Amino acid sequence: MIRLGISVEGSTEREFVHHVLNPHLLAFNVFARAVDLGGNVSIDRIRSRLPAMFGNFEQVSTLYDFYGFKRRGNHDLASLTTAITETVPEQSRRRLTPYVQLHEFEALLFAVPKITVEQLGGSTGHLHEMQQAVAAAGNPEAVNDSPQTSPSHRLHHLFGTTFQKKMHGPKIIAAAGLPAIREQCPRFDAWITRLEALGER
Prior knowledge:
Elements lengths: L1 E7 L2 H16 L3 E7 L6 H7 L9 E7 L11 H9 L10 E2 L2 E2 L11 H7 L4 H14 L13 H9 L5 H12 L1 H7 L1 H13 L3
Helix pairs in contact: 1-7, 4-5, 8-9
């Protein structure tokens, strides 16, 4: 069994790793645990925490939001992923699978709008708005226009205080099942595929 540590942004991602991702990966001989950065994700913060994880885990990955990444400057996803890799000593990099979610973890809920609306007690109007957002962006992972229309802001706008990030994100993904999310979210799917393969090494 491979021990996999996943450095995560906060409690939502931690709950997802422990209650959804880990049960899935166990079938691939991978035991995953989340290590919570507590928000305010930046390269400096990652540099101070990520290298130490290699003493406790055989493999390490990350799950951060591109949208919420602090002081990312002119980085795009590719260069930001490279910068994260470079926070780790060279000899440990072969044990690192870096991943940054485009644009937010909550984008995954737009992959399963019907289940999201059902879980949050919404209406056909809510469903239509979520479907329109995905259609306009091209796919669920691309849903993000501005700080007012990021996935989590859209969900708060639609459902108000009914939507609680920490509880509903992992709960809705568990209800939908990872295959339904992966089918609509190619970057997320590719990351899960890489984690599954760790158990074959």
